[in-house]
Design goal:
This protein is an alpha/beta fold. Helix content is 46%, strand content 14%. The chain has 9 helices and 5 strands. A 5-stranded parallel beta sheet has the order 2-1-3-4-5, sandwiched between helices. Helix 2 runs parallel beside helix 3, helix 6 packs across helix 9 and helix 7 packs across helix 8. It is elongated, with a radius of gyration of 18 Å. The C terminus is likely disordered.
Length: 210
């Protein structure tokens, strides 16, 4: 029987208790091993620079001193693009999720997670996917105009600006949003952005429509 590959995980979080808790959880999963722990982004990058074997996944806390999760994600994407990033925070706002995705993350978790969700996120990301607990749905159900709206959602444009770009009223934009929320069983813009990436409607490094 062929042995499964052990997925190597790095954790960057300035809270020692959180790091130790995550290590314990991850080591309870089959085929996962924490190979690096860092107290912040700078510590992580310094350890990676000297590492003989890079981790497959890096769990980044958003709120860290010296170099936060967003800044660290951008550095990782530039210097170690093969490492997949999973964002972690006590915050679960559209702003924090969107910004983390744009910094290179392939998923996002709230710190108030249960072990099953952490394991699922690691499985999805290690397999090359994108994870957020609200990502479900079928791209075939989405119209071409809704796909265009999703592309614009993945930019920094406000809804009124998206309406101007699409040459429709703000009421039509809200109608697109309500329709997608209903079809995909989602509740916020950040989930739509992650869905658009997962479905291939926009790329992870895309800035949306020009």
């Amino acid at each position: 029987m062929e042995n499964k590959k052990t997925i190597k995980v790095a954790i960057a979080d300035d809270h020692v208790v959180v790091r130790k808790a995550l290590v314990g959880l991850i080591h309870s999963f089959d085929d996962y091993l924490v190979t690096l722990q860092a107290k912040d982004g700078i510590d992580l990058l310094e350890q990676l620079k000297d590492s003989k074997e890079l981790p497959d996944i890096c769990i980044l806390d958003i709120s860290m001193p010296r170099l936060n999760g967003y800044e660290t994600g951008i550095e990782l994407k530039s210097k170690f693009p093969e490492i997949k990033i999973l964002g972690l925070s006590v915050l679960d706002s559209d702003f924090s999720i969107d910004k983390m995705i744009k910094s290179g993350a392939r998923g996002f978790l709230n710190k108030n997670i249960d072990p099953d969700e952490l394991q699922k996120a690691l499985q999805v990301i290690s397999a090359g996917g994108f994870y957020h607990k609200t990502i479900i749905g079928d791209v075939a159900e989405i119209t071409s105009r809704e796909q265009e709206f999703l592309q614009y959602c993945s930019t920094d444009l406000a809804y009124k600006e998206i309406a101007d770009r699409m040459a429709v009223s703000i009421n039509t934009i809200h109608s697109f949003r309500r329709s997608l929320f209903q079809k995909l069983k989602m509740k916020n813009r950040s989930s739509l952005v992650l869905y658009a990436i997962q479905a291939g409607i926009v790329g992870i490094n895309s800035n949306g429509c020009e």
